[in-house]
Specification:
- By secondary structure, the protein is an alpha/beta fold.
- It folds into two domains: 6-54, Helicase, Ruva Protein, domain 3 (Orthogonal Bundle), CATH 1.10.8.420; 72-171, 3-Layer(aba) Sandwich (Dna Topoisomerase Vi A Subunit, Chain: A, domain 2).
- The protein contains seven helices and six strands, in the order αααβββαβαβαβα.
- It has helices at 6-16, 23-35, 38-54, 89-98, 125-134, 148-161, 186-194; strands at 56-57, 64-65, 82-86, 104-107, 139-142, 167-170.
- The strands form two sheets. The protein has a four-stranded parallel β-sheet with strand order 4-3-5-6. A two-stranded antiparallel sheet has the order 1-2.
- β3, α4 and β4 form a beta-alpha-beta unit.
- α1 (6-16) crosses α2 (23-35).
- The chain is globular, with a radius of gyration of 21 Å.
Length: 199
Amino acid sequence: MKGLPDSMKAVIGEFSKMPGIGPKSAQRLAFSILTRPAEDAKKLSEAIIKLKESVKFCKICNNLSDAEICSICGNEARDKTLLCVVEKPSDVISIERMGEFNGLYHVLLGSLSPLDGVGPGDLKIDELLKRVRREKIEEIIIATASNTEGEATALYLIKVLKSQGAKLYRIAYGVPMGANLEYTDQATLYKAFEGKKEV
């Protein structure tokens, strides 16, 4: 980054720390900010500060919220007997975008990863167990990722939730719409067969 002012290098360096943003993307973002009106840069910095100061985790489900209780937990129209367990707040956004799920969520804030030193005590699993008992949850859908960590988390959750009296479900994984079987990997095909339904 020779030839750039130190202040520009500092902004590029900060953007580069973001996931999915490499040095070139960071440089483009920095140049974009530089070429926009000063008012835009001020609004961006104020929005970032407000984000850090006001967004917190919902005290019930651990989803992102700007209040003590998120809009989903506070919505009386939601099915309070149905709970979907996910790894991260972004998973809630994906499921909500589908528009078909009307239950509540529980965000674990991660997944089990012994190699990274992440065990059950590092996730919101104890809170999940207490919540299932307290709220008399009848059905639990485990919607963790289909990677190694997500599968390990799902297996652990099934083990600890089996005795809670709720029906347990694991979301199905398989061949995406429009995909050709010829180009589908074996793990995906296996999951597709495992999640087959009677017709």
